[in-house]
Amino acid sequence: MTTIPKIRYSRRSILKTGAAALGASTLSAPMVWGQETKDIVLRQFGTGVSNLNDVALQVKEDLGFTLEMTALDSDSVTQRAATQPDSFDIADIEYWICKKVWPTGNLQAMDTSRIAQYDNIVGIFRNGKLTPDSTIAQGTAPHSVGFVEGPGGTDFVDTESGWMTLIPTIYNADTLGIRPDLIDRPIANWSELLNPEFAGKASILDISSIGIMDMAMVCESMGEITYADKGNMTREEIDATFAIFTEAKRNGQFRAFWKTFDESVNLMASGEVIIQSMWSPAITAVKSRGIPCVYQPLEEGYRSWGGGLGLSSNLSGMELEAAYEYINWYLSGWVGGYLMRQGYYSAVPETSKAFMSENEWGYWFEGKAATDVITSPTGDTLAQAGEVRDGGSFTDRMGAVACWNAVMDENQYMVRKWNEFIAA
Amino acid sequence: MTDQTIIAAPPDVPATAAQRGVGRHLTGWLLAAPLAGVLAIFLVLPILTIVVVSFWGATEFSIYPAFEFDNYAFLLTSDVTWRVFGNTFKYALITWAFTLLIGFTVAYYLAFHIRSLTWQIGLFLLCTVPFLTSNIIRMISWIPFLGREGIANSALLSWGVIDAPLDWLLFSDFSVILAFVHLYTLFMVVPIFNTMMRIDRSLIEAATDAGAGGWQTLWHVIIPLAKPGIMIGTIFVVTLVMGDFITVRFMSGSQSANVGRLISNDIGLLQYPSASATAVVLLVTVLLVIAVLLRFVDIRKEL
Questions:
Q1: What does the DSSP assignment read for B159-215?
Q2: Is residue A293 classed as helix, strand or coil in its secondary structure?
Q3: How far apart, in whole angstroms, are the C-alpha atoms of residue A295 and residue A285?
Q4: Do the chains contact at A266 and B143, CB–CB below 8 Å?
Q5: Higher-scoring residue by pLDDT: B199, A11
Q6: Peptide bond preceding B34 in cis form (omega within 30 of 0)
């Protein structure tokens, strides 16, 4: 691949490049993409959920430049975004990671006037409200770390300032996953995770920043603790939460903790665990093995998360233009459709609709019964005709968010407590 | 080069002897230099960096140079540290005992019961076959085997040995130690087998002639002579187990911790200074353990 352009450095290609550069300087965006577009490489890294090879392939086809993807776990993503700014052009990170990483100055804000679909981005990411009358959930709500005052801004602002930190790409509402064939009664509350009935058959994820939120949902549901803000606990609240979970752990409530997506799938599919914190595509993965698994909606609501694309502060010139082009393309529907057919939501659902069948749109977004077999983008059967998505429609699910993944002021204290909990 | 020219010089000039001494000295230093250089750059320097960083401070997402004892203060006063170190020693000790027992038996069988050298080598190579696959794969393959609906449990159930699946087979200290023993026994077999092969057989004949029984020969002749091998195997196993984190994470289902996991958690959370401090304490601990072990056997003399 790399050798071909070198060989073609003929007089003609240089003229072409010159013409394109001339075009770039005189015309405003969108650009006339010249020969050198093909040589642009954008390096993106992020968690496995949205770092999909299919996206890179489609970018090459639609936009002409190369997108290199690296998938890492959340901890490594944070680490890389904070410490190795030269190693990436685009960071695909979650909003709570953004809160942590933004102060390092490794990312640059984006001009919303250059985002074609900006006005259609779901309200959650702009003013925090899904619908005008919805309340804002606890935790690091995306809009609260979504804007800074200007291009070089370091402090987050509450208003839609026109300079966005991350362009939202993907988000979802998480809850507990259960094995309905092994639990023969309805599950309706988070507190069931610590129900002694499931001793030795429960699991929680061993990623402190997310695990603590699941713990908080459980403790609040048990009626043991009422938090002022689950996303920003006091030391006392953290201590009380861990006291409850440490006791449960010592009593053998947990079969294991999981850290990666695959582990959660294997625990559930093998029957080692019948109730646990889980992510939506993990449920899908269990189901595609022919094992019943439900993403159980619970009375207290969902723990939600969202991710977005951030631009490295090193990006400039042609690469920056390409990055804007890429982001506009990202919101234009193809990726959204791809992600929504896996059970995630896209930032601009309307554009995704064009890339989904009516049946798919009805099942995934509107919460309607499937009229035909629902398959994943990779072709696995996920639901039969007549089945309804766990939790219902977009507004039902995203409207019932109780808290967002967060990073707390007392994060370091919480992390030390988490280590104690694991060692307990 | 220098050697050759010096040798070529007339031997009866007194100055040459001194020159020759210097030349030899220089050659020695030059010969040692590449290895010393490699070790300095890739071993000593990183360790020094770790020691330096262990005194630094950290915020949520960055580390800053400082000289403070906060990391050590927190580490040494937290009861979690003590518990985790205790756990690490527990794993090391139990694993050591099992690997020694199994490793010694296997080596003994290979060295004294197999008569033909061909068979000895053949069987020895057989022991190394599992090492053709990755460490991680050998470890993870235990998980489906030991699981609640795994082969072990379903076999026991169908034989009527148990009525309900045994939960402690997987995600427990049992499974952690099982995996350790499985992974590291060969590190015991190799050095012990090696020293046993070099035991002069006439010593055993002499012991028998002198009226010693099998156990007496084993205790008074073979074990003392195999000590260096045992010690080398012990050092391998103890350092490997104490430095491990992935086996403990997978086989305990993340429910147990050892020092390696503390370090890996800290690194994941960007707490490099704290991770460094823990690493330094672990390094010192392991070095102390080895120092104690070396008090028992002078490996350099025995080899």
A1: HTS-SS--GGGSSSHHHHHHHHHHHHHHHHHHHHHHHHHTS-HHHHHHHHHTT--HH
A2: coil
A3: 12
A4: yes
A5: B199
A6: no
Dig out the tokens for A136 from the structure.
């804002």
Q: Which of B60, B78, B254 sits opposite A206 (nearest CB)?
A: B254
pLDDT, position A23 = 41
Q: Tell me how far apart the alpha carbons of residues A280 and A265 are, in angstroms, rounded to a whole number.
A: 11
Of the candidates B268, B269, B267, B246, which has an alpha carbon nearest to the alpha carbon of residue B258? B246
Contact B80, A120 (CB under 8 A): no
Instruction: Report the candidate in B73, B189, B65, B219 with the shortest Cα–Cα distance to residue B120.
Output: B189
Structure tokens at A396: 């039902």
**For residue A341, what is the DSSP state?**
T
- C-alpha torsion A112→A118→A119→A123, nearest 10: -100
CB contact under 8 A, A75 and B268: yes
The pLDDT, as a whole number, for residue A209 is 83
pTM for this entry: 0.79
Residue B245 has φ and ψ, to the nearest 5°, of: -135, -25
Measured from the Cβ of residue B245, the count of other Cβ atoms closer than 10 Å reads: 16
A419 inside 8 A of chain B by CB: yes
Distances (CA, A) of B47 to B52, B85, B261: 9, 21, 19
* Secondary element (H or E) of residue A105: none
- How far apart are alpha carbons B19 and B7 in whole angstroms? 11
Spell out which chain B residues touch chain A, with contact meaning CB-CB distance below 8 angstroms. Answer: 60-62, 74, 78, 80, 83-84, 87, 143-144, 147-150, 167, 170-171, 249, 252-257, 261-262, 265, 267-271
Distance CA A102, CA A416 (A): 23
State the complex-level ipTM: 0.75
> What is the Cα gyration radius of chain A?
22
Contact predicate A275/A198, CB 8 Å:
yes
Query: What is the tens place of the pLDDT at every residue in B31-65?
Result: 999 999 999 999 999 999 999 999 998 876 677 89
The reported pLDDT for the residue numbered B79 is 85
> Stretch A276-288: mean pLDDT, rounded?
87
> CB–CB of A270 and B265 under 8 A?
no
Answer yes or no: is pLDDT of A249 > 60.
yes
Q: What are the tens digits of pLDDT across the range B59-97?
A: 766 778 989 898 899 888 888 889 899 999 999 999 999
The pLDDT score that the predictor gives to residue A26 is 41
- Identify the pLDDT of residue A15: 44
